Amino acid sequence: MWPAQATTRRAFTRNPSRPPDPVQILFAGKLSRTKGASWLMKALARIDAPDWHLTLVGGGSGEEQEEVLQAAARLGERVTVTGPIDQSALAARMRKAHIFVLPSFFEGLPLVLLEALASGCRLVATALPGVREFFEAIPDPALRLVALPPMADIETPDPNGAGDFIARLATKLSDQLNAAIETPIPDLSAYGRLLASYTWDGVFRTVEAVYDWARSGKK
Fold first, then answer.
1. From residue 119, how far is each of 6, 11, 13, 28, 112 by CA, in Å?
2. What sign does the dihedral 30-31-33-38 (CA atoms) show?
């Protein structure tokens, strides 16, 4: 195992002490419409209680980034914008967060969700196919899925469905905010086996098993 890999694997771990005062929400991704960042700002604007603070991690460009930053500015001191940060800094942010939110409209299985889960975060994410398939075996309140709006194309939501989507996102965020107040650190033991397969050790075991299978087939 290379040292950088070992460091990354150890970085995303749980912090046993994180009082929810306020509840810490984390978004990490491109500040763009495809990642749902603008819709997230609008959903949070509807939530007054319990008290929350959003850390917005990531960068972007042009009109879309400016749209997100302006929406964040309207929420005042309840939002901190960090810009792009490295993996170790992101891991530190995750250890402080209670909720990780990714309202993206187009993804496979975002590894950032697994990193946040390993760090002890509750999750709010859009019900993308890869996310649904990964988590469907474990119906657990650590994850709240938000139904996608009607889509104009593969990664662009139809503007006519934006209002309903924002309302659904606000509802799921409120559910997790209240859950974080009641139980700041959720029981994630049910996810242990799933997460283990995505560590470097787990990936190595998978590759090794495929290699052994291929060798046996050639004999």
1. 16, 9, 4, 14, 10
2. positive
